[in-house]
Model the fold of this input.
Amino acid sequence: MDWQEISGGWVYLPRGEVIGIVHFLGGAFVATAPQVTYRCLLEQIAKRGYAIVATPFLNTLDHLAIAREVLNRFETILDRLHKTNVLGKRYLPIYGIGHSMGCKLHLLIGSLFSVERAGNILISFNNYPANRAIPFIEQFGQYKVIPAFDVEFTPSPAETNEIIANNYQVRRNLLIRFNNDTIDQTLILNPVLQKRFPSMVALLTLPGNHLTPLSQEIDWQTGEIFTAFDAIGQWIKQGLSRDLFRLNKEILRWLNPVSAV
Done:
């Protein structure tokens, strides 16, 4: 099965029975082509019976508009899949998986729109203000290119936290952070969700960094003579593969706890 473009999104179906649907949203600057940037992560999940619907988006300051757009696109794609009967069953559990900015979008969707989700997996959540997330904005203000140049995301980080604290409706959540991720804010999000749904929120810290979900299979071919460069290449490949494998394993364990991973 290959990736299919449907109604502006990318769909990857398992070869056998579909047991669930994953709505995937990627990070701010890699979300335009999730079928490429997150290929290994998503295809491994699909192999266990999950239909992947990855909705790309262009990052703007209006994150609420993006959340509305990706949700509408997801629902349009889902409707087309049901009409063609490729999913088999009419009712299947729907899970959200987000990485980085994709987490914020899933949190907004789960807070402000009427959706049914069996759970959300939020990987490397961050909710920084625009002047940190987009460095050139701060430079505009520093050099006074535009007087009183002051922009912020909609909703702002503080408004986002308040929206989540008061309105988030998805009860079951898996929060994943990496031990070498310097821009992760999962530890700020965790108590907010724990307060809303005690005992329904799991937090994992895994080996890796902010880019681990983007890891790809590296086809490193050694020459006739094994060199120091080959050793370095194999070491990098093994490290990336190991971290991505662990991430996939924990995602699949949470999606289907009774299935052997």
